[in-house]
Amino acid sequence: MARVNLTAGRIRNFTAEDGQAFLWDSDTPGLAVRATAPGKRNPEGTKAFVFQGKLLSGQNVRITIGDVRAWGIDKAREEARTLQKQIDQGLDPRQEKKERVAATEKKRVDSIRSEAPAIEAWNIYLEARRSKWGERNYRDHLRFSDPGGKPKSRGRKKGQGDKTEPGALYALLRLPLNKIDSAMVSQWMRDEVVKRPTNTALGFRLLRAFMNWSADHEDYKHHVNADVCASRSVRDELPKKASKDDCLQREQLPLWFEQVRKLFNPVHSAYLQALLLTGARREEMARLQWSDIDFQWGGIAIRDKVEGERTIPLTPYVASLLSSLPRRKMIVDGKDAPNPWVFSSLTAASGRLQEPRIAHNKALAAAGLPSLSLHGLRRSFGTLAEWVEVPTGIVAQIMGHKPSATAEKHYRVRPLDLLRMWHTKIEAWVLEQAGVKFVATDPYNKLPVNTSS
């Protein structure tokens, strides 16, 4: 290969008639100018400094240094000498260059990531963890990080606007991860606990889990203050969790049943009574579908947040309540279709009951009873069952509680008919105390189904 002393004029006049041509430098071994002939992609052709050398293994390598318009001759010679030194040290310059480019790219990405709002990492966190969570937990995460500003679809309290408020965590998540420190979280908790103490406690737990995930994630661990939720200043702001004890007393049953049974909407009335008489969770009962009820053999399949699904007895009075409910239709993809929900709604977009607390609060007010949450009805079932001296394990299985003892976990497999025997006793005792006259005529609950719309 002929070598010449590279100059600006020689490089300017150097061209390739066809394909590629090389002009080798006499000053620096391995350095050349590569000219590429004009083509469709490059009508004027290209010229670039290149380096060619031989690895210790005997393999030839050729590396492009850069365009002659961007690199001066002296800089190109310096880069060629650097590449030759790497070869002399037994290194492959191509791998070195790749690692250098990767490090530069990582710096660039890290710089962008350090300035990006934490909600970008939060959204990745939600997608990564969604399969591990229940639907309610996932909805809680969405609710707490919602930016707000959407038109309200339900009633609002006095003084509230027409748009939804941002979620409790949204203000924090707008900050970069490295800006969320213990002082910031403490101030957030002081502000939030005044407005919504229960939400603040839940929001703190969601935030803590997210920060722990970020601290373990390769992309975010260098940007997060890992112990932000563990500092004493933050824990001191955490609202103390008070145990709830709202529960119907035996002597309150007549008033409660009287007013709940008087509710104008039969769906609300049946729903509230079914909650009390089954001990089910609010959403477990609200999501009940007609296909979940076995009127022939007296069973209800409950979508359980603990075990996934459990089957409980369909007791006589509850069976009569459910069988009397209307089978409605709903619009699906612009067409009439059967409404699958037991507790259906003519107004809700989902086609099912969404907010039963309003009707329940009206019934409580009419009865002159103290405030009682929907979960308080579940608590009432477990408490009232003790009057009938039902085995604790029976009540826990009906309510969907995890077994709390070795015998319960491994040595008790109760069939549905055994659960039904005790569950029917509980229902009969509650109705008797409430003064509700009801005679069960069919031991297997084979009741007619109301198909009216």
Description:
Residues 445-453 have low confidence and may be disordered. The chain contains 18 helices and 10 strands. The protein is an alpha+beta fold. Helix 10 (253-261) packs across helix 18 (416-434) and helix 11 (266-278) crosses helix 15. 44% of the residues lie in helices and 12% in strands. It has a 5-stranded mixed beta sheet, covered by helices on one side. Strands 6-7-8 form a 3-stranded antiparallel beta sheet. Strand 4 and strand 5 form a beta hairpin. The protein has helices at 8-13, 73-88, 93-115, 118-129, 135-144, 170-173, 182-195, 197-216, 232-235, 253-261, 266-278, 282-286, 316-323, 357-367, 374-384, 392-399, 406-410, 416-434, and strands spanning 3-4, 20-25, 31-36, 46-54, 60-67, 293-294, 299-304, 308-313, 329-332, 335-338. The longest helix has 23 residues, at 93-115. It has 3 domains: 3-113, 2-Layer Sandwich (Double Stranded RNA Binding Domain), CATH 3.30.160.390; 118-152 and 163-235; 250-434, Intergrase catalytic core (hpI Integrase, Chain A, Orthogonal Bundle). It is elongated.
User: What's the tally of helices?
Assistant: 18
Overall geometry: elongated
Distance between the termini: 94 Å
Describe the main β-sheet briefly.
Answer: 5 strands, mixed
User: How many domain regions?
Assistant: 3
Provide the CATH architecture of the largest domain. Orthogonal Bundle
Give the strand order, joined by hyphens, for the main sheet.
1-2-3-4-5
CATH superfamily of the largest domain: Intergrase catalytic core
Structural class: alpha+beta
- Element order, helices and strands? EHEEEEHHHHHHHHHHHEEEHEEHHHHH
Rg estimate, integer Å: 36 Å
